[in-house]
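Progress note, sequence design subtask.
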């Protein structure tokens, strides 16, 4: 990119030259995306590459070509591999080219969605209205994009806290003998525990309830815990249900939880990071019954929704309660005007912790308009079928053992008598498939979370073959 001698001139002198360079960069990324399987899923960066990324602070200009060449050589081939069809680690989406283009256009607009009167905010509200419709929330439900479900769960806990303690707690902080308690299954994601801490309530105010044979929260155990807390003079205020637990993909009985929450006058929040979007899959949606009764719902478009990172979302039934928790109208420089650019009735900064915020909604908007909700549902249905396929293969093998029921898209299993953590590390270094690990009942499990839309039967076969070969090599079997 050629520049004028004026260092403050950050736009190019010759737009056509930059346009050509941009096309080459985009072409390289399309090539990269269309040839994913020709390269290892993951490879450790070399010490030389890491060293090149520890260069001195660049004070003088360099060329865009050089920066891009370094990106292509040192960065792009050494990503975490979640786009690759063999990736089954943790719970990560695979992204799409359409999502990438949406993200690029969002950056081109450089929109700040903190507030004010502009069309990008209407796009975010459009996605919110779609989510309200999908999940059976009222049309005036509020919603806000956040980095991920960790933040969305945190915001939900704050809203519930303020409902229990009164919005005054925002002024006074939590002090004195505040006896509120929250409940979730012991399979709840760690970020809910952290949300308790970050909200000032503390981990000790979260009860982790036993689960049943299917890893769903035990409703009798929950009711007993609530009764014991009431008898001890405590005040139950929040029940968190999980739609797709991170370890094994279990879906709590959301209808049952909604019932208990209504009876106990608790806020009912659902962590749907993993499973909420399965609402788009006719096969899975019936198992989410009760989600429409939640007071708030956290979900991730960047997991099964296949939207590139990051795209977390919080949907809240009572928009007024949502706003009460986050609005701060004392700052003169943030005053809403009656008209003009500083107008607009909907300022997302009143509904979350961020002031400046990017245009995450655009990549979601493009993805939903381009692929349609039914395609997302089909991808999720396929992921669940592949998980069942893997489960059958595990059960059919003498050497493998299934370690948890398969409710959604996650299969936890082990090679009998082997060091399964070592098997997983070996698989990562081979670069063909990448499951992760978890610990279930004290045993290390190989955990395959089928999330990526590119994953197919051949990847499931490669996983099973890879585990069998490594397990046999370790144990001297076969
Ligand atoms: C991934 C996940 C989270 C955390 O979401 P982030 O988007 O990573 O912040 C929370 N809960 C569940 C069930 C998850 O799977």
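Output:
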């Amino acid at each position: 990119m050629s520049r004028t001698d004026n260092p403050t001139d950050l736009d190019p002198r010759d737009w056509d030259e930059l346009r050509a360079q941009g096309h080459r960069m985009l072409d390289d990324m399309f090539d990269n995306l269309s040839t994913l399987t020709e390269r290892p899923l993951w490879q450790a960066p070399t010490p030389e590459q890491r060293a090149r990324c520890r260069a001195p602070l660049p004070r003088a200009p360099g060329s865009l070509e050089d920066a891009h060449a370094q990106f292509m050589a040192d960065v792009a081939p050494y990503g975490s591999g979640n786009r690759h069809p063999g990736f089954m680690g943790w719970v990560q989406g695979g992204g799409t080219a359409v999502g990438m283009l949406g993200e690029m256009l969002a950056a081109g607009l450089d929109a700040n969605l903190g507030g004010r009167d502009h069309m990008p905010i209407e796009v975010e509200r459009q996605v919110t209205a779609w989510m309200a419709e999908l999940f059976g929330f009222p049309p005036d439900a509020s919603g806000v994009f956040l980095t991920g479900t960790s933040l969305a769960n945190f915001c939900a806990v704050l809203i519930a806290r303020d409902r229990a303690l009164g919005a005054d707690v925002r002024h006074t902080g939590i002090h004195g003998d505040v006896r509120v308690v929250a409940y979730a299954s012991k399979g709840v994601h760690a970020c809910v525990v952290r949300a308790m801490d970050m909200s000032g309530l503390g981990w000790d105010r979260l009860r982790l309830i036993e689960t049943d044979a299917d890893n769903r929260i035990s409703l009798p155990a929950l009711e007993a815990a609530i009764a014991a807390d009431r008898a001890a003079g405590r005040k139950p205020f929040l029940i968190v249900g999980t739609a797709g637990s991170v370890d094994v993909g279990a879906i709590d009985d959301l209808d049952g939880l909604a019932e208990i929450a209504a009876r106990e006058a608790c806020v009912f929040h659902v962590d749907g990071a993993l499973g909420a979007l399965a609402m788009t899959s006719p096969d899975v949606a019936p198992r989410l019954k009760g989600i429409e009764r939640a007071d708030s719902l956290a979900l991730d478009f960047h997991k099964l929704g296949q939207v590139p990172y990051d795209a977390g979302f919080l949907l809240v039934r009572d928009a007024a309660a949502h706003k009460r928790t986050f609005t701060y109208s004392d700052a003169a420089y943030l005053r809403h005007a009656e008209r003009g650019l500083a107008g607009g009735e909907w300022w997302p900064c009143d509904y979350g912790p961020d002031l400046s915020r990017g245009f995450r909604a655009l990549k979601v908007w493009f993805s939903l308009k381009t692929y349609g909700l039914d395609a997302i549902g089909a991808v999720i249905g396929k992921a669940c079928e592949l998980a069942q396929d893997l489960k059958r293969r595990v059960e059919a093998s003498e050497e493998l053992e299934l370690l948890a029921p398969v409710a959604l898209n996650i299969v936890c299993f082990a090679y009998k008598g082997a060091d399964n953590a070592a098997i997983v590390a070996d698989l990562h270094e081979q670069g063909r498939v990448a499951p992760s690990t978890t610990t279930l009942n004290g045993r290390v499990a190989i955990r395959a979370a089928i999330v990526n839309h590119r994953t197919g039967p051949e990847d499931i076969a490669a996983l099973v073959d890879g585990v069998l070969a490594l397990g046999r090599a370790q144990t001297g079997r076969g």
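The chain has two domains: 111-371, 382-475. Work on this subtask will continue into the next period as scheduled.
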